[in-house]
Amino acid sequence: MKLQLSVGMGNNPRTRPIFDGKVAAEGIDLICTSIHASELFWRQFRFADFDISEMSMSGLLMAVASGDERWVGLPIFTTRRMFNVGVLVRKDRGIDKPADLKGKKMGVPEYQQTAALWTRGYLQHEYDVHPRDMEFWMERNDDHSQGAAVGFKPPADVRLNYIPNDTNMGEMLLEGKLDGALRYLAGTDNLVDRSTVDLYRHPDFKTLFPDPHAEGVKFYRKTGIYPINHCMVIKREIVDHHPWTVLNIFKAFVRANEMAEKARMEAVAYHLETGLLPPEARKALATPLIRHGIAANRKILETTAQYSFEQGLTPRLIELDELFAPSVMEQ
User: Which of 80, 134, 79 is nearest to 104 (CA)?
Assistant: First the structure.
């Protein structure tokens, strides 16, 4: 069976073994394509271009809530990052702590994207800064918005504007028309994102948190959460006719992840042999942070669903068994 597969980062060490053929899904000939995630999600929700693909967790939650049954989720988590600590702000706006965001105009590529979902949830639960406290400016218009494809409507208590097509978020930030960005994407060479200037290295901008790494560590130590941004999905029509594909694909990605973990541990062992790292570093480095499956990630997934409901992106709390194939719920 030939199936088209696409992920946003084909060079990710945890998906590369799938792309280079070192790991195969039994009974399936995967035709692999790597496309930037922004474009991939839009293409999937608009045109269903690929049989199997990486997918926005927020987008999948909203699709399920809206009755879109084209996709079956696979608990394969291809992208995980602490996007929640990467808020970018202008230095001249007096924004030195999260509370200073109240009343500010903040850019976002797409209001409903998972990185923005996690950031708003983080600001609300850790710093009492709610989405209603800010004014948002969204770069993607309806023609290139994955949210528009799943029926996104701004929550009633949120001020959301759309950035005109003759400009972009980067230009508005440089011109001082925006105070900062909840998430900023530039130079991504895809059909969706329009900004081009690199503001993370621009002298007029800084991150909200002076040390985003330390902020992320604090969050992880408090909650045990390493945010999940993307999962994998497969077309429901394939699962209906060939249910065995679900576990075969899942097993292939687990093997690819194990290969990446083995390579990581070999690098860890090399550095530990120097004796320069303290004993506590040995334990931390030996702990795998990225695991597939529901069991290892239930709290994170349920938090994602809770944030989506709290922020008005989904009208009800979505249960995990509504998202993922029944055969992987115990994995």
Answer: 134
